[in-house]
Write a sequence for this structure.
């Protein structure tokens, strides 16, 4: 049955072939088919190149090939098969492209994560370096660091010395191994050297790390370690001058207050006196009584932490503020009648010159030399309050004082909303203005140095117990607070204060002085102030003195300054 069916199919195929007449095939049709075949072959080649190069291919490219224009069945089949192959290649190309995109996305994500981890690692290394360079000593010196006892178990606390080698603090060891901290000068250096029991204060705290470090010869240290003996701690050599400290201490005796003396050209702190004081040799026995005496604030280092109304010594800044706003400041005049009143009724504020003195017509220099309150009240009314506040901030008001020992933040409250009464009180250093003796010493130092402020510092060098240098400190410029012209004008005006003004007791002593006196009214009384510098043309030392409740500045602070200057040039 199958065989018959195949025979029939073959016969039908032969009949169809016989019916075909090749000779009747149209020449034009044949030519067209040949032409289309050539077209499709070249187009297929270009399409394959696109596929290989993964260029964008429109699906219609294949459809045009598949459709062709040839009526020949063989060509149509060829075109269809090529189109199908093209579609497969296109599909495969798109798949490869998607995979490549996914790989790129994964690579990008991996790179981002890697960069983050590398960045964190670099930040960690950077902080580690920063910590060791800038924070390690502070952390070790912190009284809250309980691991300090580990150093004390291995190191005998080192000495603290004055600039010329005098011992200000040492540790004595007795036969039974007991250690006692000794302060040979007793209370004279109490606040600046500090103490090392009941916590630490002063240089004992500032240089705790150095005092409990030993840089003696390494073989000696190794030998002591094997013998279970302690090594001697390093020696801290300060900038303090014993002779000047003793003179200043004696001069201020009987008053609460502070004295600070700074070397003008370097910023070295030569004197730091704060009264009332305590004896660090007996502080263990007296600790409870001293610590509970809040009225005298015995433990307060008034040089850095005392907050006082500055009174007339603040007029130096008031004067500078006026100069900066008025280029014709040399033309300023004011007629003093002994008092001035601003406001009306309950808001009226009256300020008088000391003793209600009538100074008459005053220019700027005379206003400062005679400390004419009414003239400076007038200046205060002429100054822009916001500009004055900006100037005050430049001179460390309302900001942390850049010094080594702990300090209080000073206060300046004047602003654009302040009343006229507040303006005139601020201009003469009263009102809400508060300042420390160290800050006023720094302001005075910038005037003495032509506008440049040297950074005040207490430590000259660190030596090993056997005398080898470990670290030394050199003078550094902290900031430029004013122009040389401004400094020269202020220096000239302050010289007039000594030549014929309120500090005339400092003239004619074999050295020149520029300064400013101040009598600052406080709740409990009047504080006596003096700030100034000696050897005006080439300044040597800066002094800042406040005697609490001592009355007129000329009667107390100026004589103290004279004793210090005399001792320095003696």
């Amino acid at each position: 049955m199958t065989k018959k069916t195949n025979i029939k199919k073959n016969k039908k195929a032969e009949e169809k072939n016989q019916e075909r007449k090749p000779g009747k095939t149209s020449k034009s049709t044949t030519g067209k088919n040949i032409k289309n075949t050539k077209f499709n072959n070249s187009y297929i080649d270009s399409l394959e190149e696109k596929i290989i190069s993964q260029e964008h291919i429109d699906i219609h490219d294949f459809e045009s090939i598949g459709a062709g224009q040839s009526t020949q069945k063989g060509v149509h089949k060829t075109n269809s098969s090529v189109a199908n192959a093209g579609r497969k290649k296109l599909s495969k190309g798109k798949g490869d492209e998607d995979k490549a995109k996914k790989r790129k996305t994964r690579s990008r994500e991996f790179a981002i994560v890697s960069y983050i981890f590398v960045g964190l690692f670099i930040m960690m290394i950077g902080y580690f370096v920063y910590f060791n360079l800038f924070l390690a000593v502070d952390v070790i010196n912190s009284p809250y660091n309980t691991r300090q006892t580990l150093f004390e178990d291995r190191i005998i606390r080192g000495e603290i010395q004055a600039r010329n080698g005098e011992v200000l603090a040492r540790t004595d060891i007795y036969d039974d191994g007991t250690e006692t901290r000794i302060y040979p000068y007793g209370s004279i250096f109490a606040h600046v050297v500090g103490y090392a029991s009941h916590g630490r204060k002063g240089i004992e705290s500032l240089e705790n790390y150095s005092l409990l470090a030993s840089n003696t010869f390494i073989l000696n240290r190794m030998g002591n370690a094997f013998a279970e003996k302690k090594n001697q701690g390093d020696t801290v050599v300060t900038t303090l001058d014993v002779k000047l400290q003793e003179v200043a201490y004696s001069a201020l005796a009987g008053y609460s207050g502070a004295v600070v003396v700074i070397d003008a050209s370097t910023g070295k702190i030569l004197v730091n006196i704060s009264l009332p004081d305590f004896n660090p040799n007996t502080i263990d026995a007296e600790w409870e009584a001293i610590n509970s005496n809040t009225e005298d604030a015995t433990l307060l280092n008034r040089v850095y932490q005392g907050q006082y109304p500055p009174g007339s010594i603040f007029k130096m800044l008031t004067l500078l503020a006026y100069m900066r706003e008025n280029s014709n400041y040399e033309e300023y005049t004011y007629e003093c009648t002994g008092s001035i009143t601003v406001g009306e009724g309950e808001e009226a504020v009256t300020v008088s010159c000391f003793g209600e003195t009538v100074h008459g017509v005053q220019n700027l220099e005379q206003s400062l030399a005679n400390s004419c309150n009414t003239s400076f009240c007038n200046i205060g009314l002429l100054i822009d309050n916001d500009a004055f506040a900006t100037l005050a901030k430049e001179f460390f008001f309302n900001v942390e004082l850049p010094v080594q020992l702990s300090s209080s933040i000073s206060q300046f409250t004047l602003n654009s909303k302040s009343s006229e009464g507040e303006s005139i009180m601020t201009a003469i250093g009263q009102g809400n203005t508060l300042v420390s003796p160290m800050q006023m010493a720094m302001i005075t130092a910038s005037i003495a140095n032509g506008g440049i402020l040297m950074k005040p510092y207490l430590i000259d060098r660190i030596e090993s117990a056997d005398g080898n240098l470990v670290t030394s400190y050199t003078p550094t410029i902290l900031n430029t607070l004013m122009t040389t012209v401004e400094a020269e004008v202020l220096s000239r005006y302050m010289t007039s204060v000594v030549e014929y003004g309120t500090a005339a007791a400092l003239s004619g002593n074999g050295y020149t002085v520029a300064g400013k006196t101040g009598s600052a009214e406080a709740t409990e009384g009047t504080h006596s102030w003096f700030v100034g510098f000696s050897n005006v043309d080439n300044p040597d030392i800066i002094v800042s003195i406040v005697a609490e409740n001592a009355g007129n500045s000329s009667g107390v602070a100026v004589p103290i300054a004279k004793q210090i200057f005399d001792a320095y040039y003696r």
Summary: The longest strand covers residues 513-522. Residues 35 and 341 are 115 Å apart (CA to CA).
